[in-house]
């Protein structure tokens, strides 16, 4: 009879003991950077482990976005805007001759304002500025696009970003690898606490933007040479797992 009461008492205490083990292990992992974090009982009364996993996948880019434009300083606002407009129109014609579709050219910035003299009150003239973003779907044309911009009178270059037309498959690969990374961490943490992973409570996916690395040069055209390099996509996931004895 005494043995039966002891067994009943032990079974009643088991969830609390598991919670204490999990909570204690969680304290040990605090401040461990990307190590899994342990939390005590959830609302349902079970213990959980929250693990963060990450993965990076790489692939050659197949498109580019070029940011460029023109600015001018003239005595009057009209003259300044006309100067910039002449450059932008000439650039549009040059880009069309390269086979760049009109839908791939858009204005992303347009400014006009006075420039004051040394006294801070008198107007010395006006600054006008227009910035374009050009989507280049043939990487062999990135160099010629930059050459055309210079020939048209562009005097602003915001940069070149290489990307993919469709990154969905790369993102799916990165998510799968990141989840596997989180699972491995959770299982290691659970095992160290004398527990095992029972299932998934929730998954949160973060990131997915491209990271650009400089790589081998593209086939150079006469004029400006660009380097498409290797583009990488990084995804981070936070997975909460249910654990138990």
Provide keyphrases for this structure.
single chain; alpha+beta; Translation Initiation Factor IF3; Alpha-Beta Plaits; 2 domains; four-stranded antiparallel beta sheet; 35% helix
Give structural notes:
The protein is an alpha+beta fold and 245 residues long. It has 2 domains: 2-60 and 169-219 and 230-244, Protein of unknown function (DUF541), domain 1 (Translation Initiation Factor IF3); 63-163, 2-Layer Sandwich (Alpha-Beta Plaits), CATH 3.30.70.2970. Helix content is 35%, strand content 40%. It is built from 4 helices and 8 strands. The protein has helices at residues 2-29, 77-97, 142-152, 168-192; strands at 37-41, 47-59, 63-74, 105-116, 123-136, 156-163, 196-213, 230-244. The strands form 2 sheets. A 4-stranded antiparallel beta sheet has the order 1-2-8-7. The longest helix is centred in the N-terminal third of the chain and has 28 residues, at 2-29. It is elongated and about 80 Å long. The model is unreliable at 1-34, 37-43 and 211-222 (pLDDT under 50).
Write the layout of secondary structure elements.
Blueprint: H1 2-29, E1 37-41, E2 47-59, E3 63-74, H2 77-97, E4 105-116, E5 123-136, H3 142-152, E6 156-163, H4 168-192, E7 196-213, E8 230-244
Helix pairs in contact: 2-3
Q: How many domains, as an integer?
A: 2
- Full CATH superfamily name of the largest domain: Protein of unknown function (DUF541), domain 1
Q: Provide the gyration radius in Å.
A: 30 Å
For the largest sheet, list the strands in their spatial order.
1-2-8-7
């Amino acid at each position: 009879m005494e043995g039966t009461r002891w067994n009943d008492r032990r079974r009643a205490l088991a969830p609390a003991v598991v919670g204490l083990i999990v909570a204690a292990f969680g304290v040990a992992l605090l401040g461990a950077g990307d190590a899994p974090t342990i939390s005590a009982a959830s609302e349902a009364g079970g213990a959980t482990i929250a693990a963060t996993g990450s993965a990076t996948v790489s692939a050659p880019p197949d498109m580019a976005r070029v940011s460029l434009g023109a600015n001018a300083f003239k005595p009057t606002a009209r003259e300044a805007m006309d100067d910039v407009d002449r450059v932008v129109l000439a650039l549009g014609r040059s880009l069309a001759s390269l086979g760049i579709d009109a839908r791939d050219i858009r204005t992303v910035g347009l400014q006009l304002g006075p420039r004051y003299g040394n006294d801070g009150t008198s107007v010395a003239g006006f600054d006008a500025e227009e910035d374009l973003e050009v989507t280049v779907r043939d990487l062999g044309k990135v160099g010629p696009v930059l050459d055309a911009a210079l020939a048209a009178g562009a005097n602003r270059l915001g940069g070149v970003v290489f990307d993919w037309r469709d990154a969905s498959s790369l993102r799916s690969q990165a998510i799968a690898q990141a989840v596997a990374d989180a699972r491995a961490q959770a299982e290691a943490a659970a095992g160290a606490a004398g527990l095992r992973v029972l299932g998934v409570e929730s998954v949160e996916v973060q990131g997915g933007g491209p990271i650009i690395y400089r790589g081998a040069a593209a086939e150079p055209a006469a004029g400006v040479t660009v380097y498409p390099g290797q583009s990488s996509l990084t995804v981070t996931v936070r997975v909460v797992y249910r654990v138990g004895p």
